[in-house]
Amino acid sequence: MGAGLRNPKVWIALACLLPLARLIALGASGGLGANPIEFITRSTGTWTLIGLLVTLSVTPLRRLTGRADLVRYRRMLGLFAFFYACLHFTTYVWLDQFFDPAAIARDIVKRPFITVGFSAFMLLIPLAATSTHAMMRRLGRRWQQLHRLVYPIALLGVVHFLWLVKKDLTEPLVYGAILALLLALRLPWGLNLLGALRARFVPARS
Asked: Between the CA of residue 201 and those of 36, 195, 198, 204, what are the distances in Å?
């Protein structure tokens, strides 16, 4: 096996591309259902939210396992979340609104779930633009302050999904519960819980 295939980042990238590969395969085989635009929009939006939640899970997992190397994958996961957000936004602007600025503006103003989703996407852009090591060095302490926007962005993503769904709220509520847990684990009692779990279940490294 080549050195490249032994790099976990390669496997993480391949895993992150699986939802896109599935969409392409379904599109090629006519498996996108009666409303392909809605299917693509819903799928890319869901994977954006999943990507944000997985990115937010890196820090609790690092604290639980003591594996500091997990942090090196956080930026890649965040950028894949932004990638699916771009696909989600492009699907809406192109396939749903046909690049009609007036129609898009009306939608943003009149439909609350569009307003929230658009706001979340706009907030994601500066995070993606400043994700490089060079920008981290340039911004210094302000970089960390800026990237704390991921918390309200994830919350807006959950609200966007919740307001979009009209009947069965189970899925967005599950994502909301996961987000609440990930945020709670950053509070003092959450940190104490992670420390206790690590002491009890994770063997100490020699």
From this structure: 46, 10, 5, 9
Please tell me the distance from the alpha carbon of residue 127 to that of residue 78, in angstroms, as a whole number.
9
**What integer best gives the mean pLDDT of the chain?**
91
> Dihedral through CA 20, CA 25, CA 30, CA 33, nearest 10?
-40
Within 13 Å of residue 197, how many CA atoms lie on the same side as its CB?
Answer: 14
Q: If we measure between CA atoms, which residue out of 157, 133, 152 comes closest to residue 49?
A: 157
Q: Where are the domains of the chain?
A: 4-201
Its pTM surpasses 0.70: yes
Place of tokens 């709670």: 184
> DSSP code of 98?
T
Q: What is the pLDDT of residue 199?
A: 81
Tens of pLDDT, residue by residue over 43-88, are 999 999 999 999 999 999 998 888 888 999 999 999 999 999 999 9
CA distance linking residue 43 with residue 54, whole number of Å: 16
The token pair at 93 is 């602007």
